[in-house]
Design goal:
Blueprint: E1 9-14, H1 24-30, H2 32-49, E2 56-61, H3 67-73, E3 79-82, H4 88-101, E4 107-110, H5 119-130, E5 135-139, E6 145-150, H6 168-178, E7 183-185, H7 196-208, H8 212-225
Parallel strand pairs: 1-2, 1-4, 2-3, 5-7
Antiparallel strand pairs: 4-6, 5-6
Helix pairs in contact: 1-2, 2-8, 7-8
């Protein structure tokens, strides 16, 4: 990862859909097998939407043992790495710092479970960074964020954050202010963690005029949520 290059880097965190815990809160609503299928479909959609000649995609799988399978599943990554150990914040900082040290002019990080995440979002964040901002965030409607982009990695942004709670965005913004970082917020997006998110996601798709793939995902999840678990 030491070879310098001029392209920005998008770090994409993912896990294999067919093993380990996947979307546990959603699984409690629609069943484990259905939650896995939902995660697989959304991940493939998001990965496809993130393809761009303007930045590299670095795929970070949850562990070394899943890197080969991950590369065969989400094809076309410029690099594939295992996430480091530690908290989510430690893993995110490690990925961003690795990209920064490679010579990338700016870098970003996303997961694969928010259907609205796309290349246009990343490029909009990149434009903000290239015109003076230090940090750009896409809020998630549950209080977290779906995308973070920055020109230089700042470890403090990822320390002491209560991950997987509605406080994530608020705490991150507070840390950015403490660091005197100039930042911008992009339009918020809907992620998908619970049965209650389905109705909100339906409204989001209608408002944005999303295409058939997104509507098919929603129809799948709604159908599963109305059936007994199993």
């Amino acid at each position: 990862m030491s070879k310098a290059h001029s392209k920005p880097v998008l770090n994409v965190f993912a896990k294999m859909w067919d093993r380990g815990p996947v979307k546990t809160r959603l699984a409690a609503d629609i069943g484990e097998s259905s939650a896995r299928e939902w995660y697989r479909r959304v991940s493939e959609l998001v990965w496809q939407q993130l393809e761009s000649p303007h930045f590299e995609r670095w795929l970070w799988m949850v562990d070394e043992g899943s890197c080969k399978d991950g590369a065969n599943w989400l094809k076309g990554a410029d690099q594939v790495f295992p996430q480091c150990g530690g908290s989510l914040g430690a893993r995110m900082f490690h990925a961003l710092e690795s990209a920064s040290k490679s010579g990338a002019p700016w870098c970003a990080i996303v997961g694969t479970d928010a259907p609205a995440v796309c290349a246009e979002m990343i490029l909009e964040a990149g434009h903000l960074l290239e015109t003076g901002e230090d940090l750009a965030l896409t809020p998630a409607l549950d209080g977290g964020y779906a995308m973070l982009a920055l020109r230089e990695s700042h470890q403090e942004l990822f320390e002491g954050v209560e991950w997987s709670t509605p406080k994530v965005l608020e705490q991150t913004i507070s840390k950015a202010k403490t660091l005197n970082l100039n930042f911008s917020l992009l339009p918020p997006v809907q992620d998908m963690d619970t049965k209650e998110d389905l109705a909100a996601l339906s409204c989001y798709f209608q408002k944005t005029g999303s295409g058939s793939q997104e509507q098919a995902l929603l129809a799948f999840a709604v159908n599963k949520s109305c059936k007994p678990k199993g």
